[in-house]
Amino acid sequence: MGLYLLDYGAGNVQSLANSLSKLGHPFTWISSPDDFHKATSLIFPGVGAFETAIENLTQKGFLEPLREYLQSGKPYFGICIGLQVLFQSSTESLNVKGLDVIPGIIERLDDSDKAVPHIGWNSADLVQTPDVEPAYYYFVHSYCSKYFPKDRPDAAGWAYTTTQYGGEVFVSSVRKGNVFATQFHPEKSGAAGLAVLDNWVKTPEAERSAGVSKPESLYSPPVLSLKSKDNLTKRIIACMDVRSDDDGNLVVTKGDQYDVREKVSSDGTSMRVETGGAVRNLGKPVTLAAKYYAAGADEICLLNITSFRQSPLQDQPMLAVVRAAAECVFVPLTIGGGIKDTIDPDGTKHTALEVASEYFRAGADKVSIGSDAVFAAEMLLSSGQNRGNGTSSIETIAHAYGSQAVVVSIDPRRVFVDAATYDGPHKDELIHGSADSVFEADRGKSWWYACTVSGGRETRSISVCQLARAVEVLGTGEILVNSIDRDGTGLGFDSDLLRLVKGCVKVPVVASSGAGKKEHFADVFEKTGVEAALAAGIFHRGEVDIVQVKEYLEHNAVKVRTSVA
Ligand code: 1PR
């Protein structure tokens, strides 16, 4: 079979390639307009902006051959942008025309009642089988085809599944003749997503063309109703802080308040002198990533925590780790550390976009930006403007790969002040420690949260709220909120901090630092409304596993993805 993949030049297509390889389906990349004639099956994956996708297809001379391919009746599978380009146009860029295979307009999700982008695992409802447990798939998008069956009776002819997010129902997959396309990412949706891909590739081409349906497969004819309900689940993310140990091996380590070295006593007494210990080694990054994927982690995060010392492009072992992890992890993979403009020792310059692109090519789905996001936010604030100048790492990467591919990771630290006399710039953000604070040192105190850079080594004067608002303006798709005060303490997430950030932005917020028991996860979702919770130490040390966390959450009426098989 001539299975071809269309890479329009942005977006992480490596994930799809890895998924097809895992399933044992050989494929060829479309590399010239002629390849469209050779293809007998075509998959078009993609993330990013509608305009960028159409522009890139045009520049590569692919747009017309793609149109002809679609008209030829040969089977087509579009993913995310590969679905959206099938429509007439998108409100994302009204002057850009889509392929017009499907009538209708792609529109932005309404953010008045929910975080946008819609990121996470949600159900795609094949409503003709209402008694069947819905399967969960990974979505990451801000635009969609909204589903209004009364206004659009023709939608029954092509809308195949619907999904509800907040108060809105949108079309999460379409099927029209030879065309099948999903708004979700099957290549990032674990076993359920791999099954969708596998079914499609294995179904004989004649059946996938011309709309012949196979009732027991994913291609059953749609019977739509508005029985959808918002099934977006809270995500549980396993995070690995990666660095070289003293012998130069890359290991997963874990700090206490960002100190990753074992504490040693200088004289063998109980006095702890916090120097000289070895880097804590909690395992191998790829082995742990595979283990967490199998246990049902909704996402995996790898942070290169000493990348500020070296250009990531020269850090071949880390790139090799990302490549190997991407081959065995079929949920989203975020890579952080050193995403910034860099200069190699020989003077070669690399932009942050080049660094990120290298990680995307290695198989990352998102990059996480720490220190550089702080500098970009500071520049935006000092410019007095309410939009960036397009040059920051956040903007350049979001422009090329879409904002959903950019996570800003904040490393805040508490700065204590005397509330009675404090008249500084952050007085509206002061938190007053309650008498029963889990941190004894906080009780009766007041503080604001300062951002830090270089893994907490330098504290800046910009506050966590200033940063969160600025990076949202610059185009981040998500904000990961660590806490230096809580990291590795096991005392629970910092709800004050998370509520503060959640109240500042519309993009999804990920809670991090401090998880010590399964109850902490239920607590953070209930108290702060964050979309996801990340933990490291308890998973690495095997104190609680992901299955137990999810069972506990489900028991406490928090929606989670439990079926991973
Ligand atoms: O600044 O863009 O190069 O990114 C550096 C990245 O590395 C940042 O995301 C920063 O948070 C991270 N980082 C730097 N130094 C450390 C360190 O620990 N010495 N790790 C570090 C940050 C925080 C989380 C941790 C959670 C959960 N670690 O990654 O996984 O706190 O831990 P827990 O569940 O055990 O409490 P740049």
TrEMBL record:
Active-site residues, record numbering mapped to chain: 80, 185, 187, 241, 411
Binding site for L-glutamine: 80
Chain positions covered by the region annotation PRFAR binding: 370-371, 409-411, 487-488, 513-514, 536-537
Pathway assigned to this chain's UniProt record: Amino-acid biosynthesis; L-histidine biosynthesis; L-histidine from 5-phospho-alpha-D-ribose 1-diphosphate: step 5/9
Stated family: Belongs to the HisA/HisF family. In the C-terminal section; belongs to the HisA/HisF family.
EC numbers on record: 3.5.1.2
GO process annotations (BP): L-histidine biosynthetic process
Transmembrane segments: none
Entry keyword Manganese: no
Record-given protein name: Imidazole glycerol phosphate synthase hisHF
A molecular function (GO) term: imidazoleglycerol-phosphate synthase activity
Any coiled-coil regions, as ranges: none
Keywords: Amino-acid biosynthesis, Glutamine amidotransferase, Histidine biosynthesis, Hydrolase, Lyase, Multifunctional enzyme
Listed Pfam families: GATase, His_biosynth
Residues that bind substrate: 338, 482
Classification via InterPro entries: Aldolase_TIM, Class_I_gatase-like, GATASE, His_biosynth, HisF, IGPS_HisA/HisF, IGPS_HisHF, Imidazole-glycPsynth_HisH
Domain Glutamine amidotransferase, first and last residues per copy: 5-199
Enzyme class: hydrolase
Reaction(s) the record says it catalyses: L-glutamine + H2O = L-glutamate + NH4(+); 5-[(5-phospho-1-deoxy-D-ribulos-1-ylimino)methylamino]-1-(5-phospho-beta-D-ribosyl)imidazole-4-carboxamide + L-glutamine = D-erythro-1-(imidazol-4-yl)glycerol 3-phosphate + 5-amino-1-(5-phospho-beta-D-ribosyl)imidazole-4-carboxamide + L-glutamate + H(+)
Biological function: IGPS catalyzes the conversion of PRFAR and glutamine to IGP, AICAR and glutamate. The glutaminase domain produces the ammonia necessary for the cyclase domain to produce IGP and AICAR from PRFAR. The ammonia is channeled to the active site of the cyclase domain.
CDD domains recorded: GATase1_IGP_Synthase, HisF
Taxonomic superkingdom: Eukaryota
